[in-house]
């Protein structure tokens, strides 16, 4: 739940920044608006990291459960 809340809060914060801060939407590196770059490129490392952490925690939970049932 913590990973989901963290990920969703970051994803929802990006459009809110665009609505609240005019300077955020005015920046255009490489001729592309900053919000589009963040949503289209920069968000994927975050999602990859969240998936990696989730998988590691799921594997740890599975190992703990297996250890409990083996005894």
Quick description:
86% of the residues lie in helices and 0% in strands. It is built from three helices and no strands.
Q: Topology of this protein?
A:
Blueprint (H helix, E strand, L loop, with lengths): L1 H19 L1 H5 L7 H37 L1
Helix pairs in contact: 1-3
What does this structure look like?
With 71 residues, this protein is mainly α. 86% of the residues lie in helices and 0% in strands. It contains three helices and no strands. It has helices at residues 2-20, 22-26, 34-70. The protein is elongated.
Distance between the amino and carboxyl termini: 29 Å
Q: Which geometry do the CA atoms define?
A: elongated
Radius of gyration: 18 Å
Element-by-element helix/strand order: HHH
Unreliable segments of 5+ consecutive residues? none
Structure summary, number of beta strands? 0
Structural class: mainly alpha
User: What is the overall number of helices?
Assistant: 3
Q: What's the pLDDT, averaged over the residues? A: 86
Describe the sheet with the most strands.
none
Strand content: under 5%
Q: Percentage of helical residues?
A: over 70%
Summary keywords:
3 helices; mainly alpha; 86% helix; 71 residues
């Amino acid at each position: 739940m913590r990973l989901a809340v963290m990920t969703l809060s970051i994803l929802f914060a990006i459009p809110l920044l665009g609505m609240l801060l005019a300077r955020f939407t005015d920046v255009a590196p490489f001729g592309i608006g900053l919000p589009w770059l963040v949503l289209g490129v920069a968000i994927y490392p975050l999602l990859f990291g969240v998936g990696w952490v989730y998988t590691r925690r799921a594997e740890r939970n599975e190992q703990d459960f297996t250890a409990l049932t083996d005894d």
